[in-house]
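Troubleshooting log. The previous structure file for this entry was overwritten by mistake, so regenerating from the original sequence record. Sequence copied from the archived sheet and checked twice against the printout by T.R.
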Amino acid sequence: MQQPKPTAPPDAPSGTIGLSDEISWFSASLSVIGESLDPDLITQLLKRSPTMSWQQSSALNSFSKAKGFRQRNGGWQLSIKPADTDEWSINNLISLLLSELPTDISTWNAISELGQPQIAIGLNLPNSQSRDFSIEPDLMNLLAKRKIRLWFDVYAEEADQQKF
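Regenerated output below.
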């Protein structure tokens, strides 16, 4: 972790919510999805095994198999869960996700010809309080050069309704 996680001052009353309180994240993944994508090709290009991969027309899990569902696309996915890191900054989290992958733009051009690269971030906004975050220009530039789409899935729940 490069920066300390923001917290309320130690002498603040119980339940204090600061304007700089962090956004809780619960998932981050890099995916490449394409109609006839062969995930083994992405593994070769990125020189990294995926957390999960699937072929077009395969059942992704036992539920899908039991119901007869088949994947319309092939896919390759590398995921990070909160248990894997103490990182809390979205910018640092995305950088961490990409840190062990090739930086050569020609590799990413080849990947984007096979499928759409996307980073998905799942966020939780506790207590439905207003929170904000920003993506740094250097990181946006890095993603754009690699043709990586950035997608956010944002949840806002009352504290007593949170399930994770």
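Residues 24-161 form one domain. Archived copy saved in two places this time.
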